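Q: Convert this sequence to structure tokens.
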Amino acid sequence: MVFNPPDKIKKLIDAKYIVLEHAHDDLREIWIDHILFSFGWWTSLLMTIIPWIVWFVFRKKESSTRLLLGGLWAMFISTWLDYVGVTMGLWRYYNKLVPLMPDFIPWDFGLMPITVMFFLQIKPKVHALIKASIFAGMTAFLAELLFIKLGYTKYPGWSPVLSFPIFIIIYLVAHFLVHSKATKPLR
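A:
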């Protein structure tokens, strides 16, 4: 049994990696020349940092670890989905905080996990599906449309309507993780 692909396939893949390397070099140059320290870059930086400061001040301190579990899930899955979406040409970002990451750091590392964590801690007795629907509606039909309108992103192959059920799932998984009995202390 051979685990190593044939040399022909390796050469084809190597050629595509070279194309990607050149594309990343070109994007880094655009970022350095036109994006770094621009108004869009500064607002992206603030959208990444300020939500964490707000969360740190207003979080339910006794629930921080559980909330972070839900927030980390949202961060992980939104980053992965952003990578997939950008790679497939479904959407693009124009105000990158860091040039070599295809995702929108303010959204994936700041706004998304913080919003999920606040939704989890506010009105905890409200049914999860209701909160998930409100979260998904605000995220898909307000936040995404705002980022499109402001020119931070473009959706050549996507629509916020498609995001709505995905955001419901993201919230429901975070809710399950935060309320799981599996998060009891280590013994």
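DSSP finds six helices and two strands in the chain.
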